[in-house]
Design brief:
single chain; mainly alpha; globular
Length: about 290
């Protein structure tokens, strides 16, 4: 198998796994609160990253970071996984999966807008067009097609889903300052996020033995969504000689996700969800116009 085929295989595997996580979120939240799900999935993800670093012979690198890099990891760990996933899980708790999942895809639009003041990039007309088209899709999805009535399924859920895109975009903008090995940096970020997660859990939750069903869901989310998908995507981008071709695979994920949501969660997929999702994807594609 040549390098390009390996890149395609890694990319497709990551996309397929990402397509299942909306369903996994909803199933796991039947047994866990958002902070419980974050706590246990973070443990599984950290353990996976530790195993990968040991396998790659890079574990010693986590002790060789500079003071500035450790401080950056504290900040990034606060943004994600702590703040981002806490907000995202709460949004999934309040919204149907078919609404929360497409809304989360608007983070790329937010990223391009925040890059203007934070990275001193210029905003282009394509970004304004992308913003307009994508957020038309947001309104269609979050109102279940009742655009004129502006009746939202859960206003708080929609607000949290959109807020999560801001946190995720901020994470990636500040992540551009990190020059460490990506897996090393992610592992250290997860380690430094643990005090935030545990502290919030102890302050807001009663201690209890986790149910087995919830643990299985947390293990799946931590292993794949928070850990393996990142590594697989990283390998795909490293091996490919055509970054755009691999990047375009990500547009398959939201549509595949609706298939899992329909069959595994039993949600009846609304026509408004398809229309809104197409608008969001169209907005993302507008950013690539020249």
């Amino acid at each position: 198998m040549n390098q390009q085929r390996k890149a395609l295989l890694f990319g497709l595997t990551a996309v397929l796994l990402w397509s299942t996580v909306a369903t996994a979120f909803k199933l796991s939240l039947r047994h866990f609160t958002p902070i419980e799900l974050l706590l246990y999935s973070g443990v599984f993800s950290t353990a996976l990253l530790w195993g990968i670093l040991v396998y790659q012979g890079k574990f010693r690198l986590i002790f060789q970071c500079s003071r500035q890099e450790y401080l950056l990891s504290i900040f990034l760990g606060f943004l994600s996984p702590f703040l981002y996933y806490l907000i995202l899980f709460k949004a999934y708790d309040l919204l149907p999966a078919q609404q929360a999942q497409p809304l989360n895809y608007t983070w790329a639009i937010v990223l391009s807008l925040l890059a203007v003041p934070l990275l001193k990039q210029k905003i282009r007309w394509q970004q304004w067009l992308a913003l307009l088209v994508s957020y038309c899709g947001v309104v269609v999805i979050s109102t279940e097609g009742n655009v004129l009535g502006l009746t939202f399924t859960s206003p708080l859920g929609v607000a949290l889903a959109l807020l999560s895109t801001v946190v995720w975009a901020l994470y990636w903008i500040y992540n551009t300052r990190d020059q460490r090995d990506p897996v090393v940096a992610l592992f250290v970020n997860f380690l430094f996020s643990f005090p935030f997660v545990l502290g919030y859990y102890l302050l807001t939750s009663d201690l209890r033995l986790p149910p087995l069903e919830g643990l299985l869901g947390a293990a799946y989310i931590g292993t794949f969504e928070m850990g393996a998908c990142f590594v697989l995507w990283l390998m795909a981008m490293k091996l490919t000689d055509n970054t755009a071709r691999i990047s375009n695979l990500i547009f398959l994920s939201p549509f595949l996700s609706l298939v899992f949501i329909y069959f595994l969660l039993g949600e009846q997929i609304l026509a408004a969800t398809f229309v809104g999702l197409i608008l969001i994807i169209a907005g993302l594609l507008c950013q690539r116009l020249r």
